[in-house]
Amino acid sequence: MVVVLEKITLNVGIGSGGGVKLENAKKLLEKITEVKPVATKAKKRNPAFNIRKGDLIGVKVTLRKKGALNVLNKCLEAVSFRLPASSFDNQGNFSFGVHEYIELKGVKYDPDLGMIGFDVCATLSKPGKRVGLRRIKPSRVPFKQRVSKKEAMEFATSLGVEVF
Question: Which residue, 14, 51, 122, 160, shows the most beta carbons closer than 10 Å to its own?
Answer without folding.
Answer: 122
